[in-house]
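S.,

Sequence below, as promised.
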Amino acid sequence: MKQLRKEEPKKRHADIQFKDFPHKKEVLAIAIAVLVTILVLILTSGGPETPPATNQSLNQTPEINTKIYSAGGIYLEYPESWKVTTDEIKDNNMQLVIQDPSSAGNPNSTQAAGFTVFKVEKDPYQTLEQRKYTFIQSINDSGANINLVSSNDTNINGINAVESIYNGKGPKNEQIQLKVIYFERNNLIYILAFLTKGMDLQSQSANFDVVIDSFKLQ
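The prediction came back faster than expected:
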């Protein structure tokens, strides 16, 4: 059944107002900077626990209980114990971050797992690969040091995409790993990033696969 997103009070996770910036290139740069800041926060500390949002509902899979997120032109499922810590939508721009309960509720957690979905209008002066490179370079500029391990073509529910794996150290010299799936559709760029701190990326594959296997455009 299609999940409808009810109107909610405005959230102030990132304090970004796209309408305040007249040039698309400035909007893209600011959105990337905000998203990278959120990712670094996941790697270095936890965010506040948030109550279940009205655009989420419970669903059951054979192994993992899940919630549904359906808004901003995307649909996905994620582990029901995980927390939405950022949910920003403005026109065709979107930033969503969901963390595991330990890191979301404990700023001193030595281990963390989370994922983000980032959607933005395509910059006509940048290719999809250049946009992904900017995303990764911004993470490194924020204090991390991650390097490409592998990159392959993939398919996410009928959408041709590229999957890249990164490995390295976070701002506090902690181990971090990152899987990035990115693609372009209808002049919009989508970046799905799955990251872990202090644990192997593979250890969270079941949780991340729930998101990847259920992800759809609406």
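The chain is about 25% helix and 40% strand.

Coffee later?
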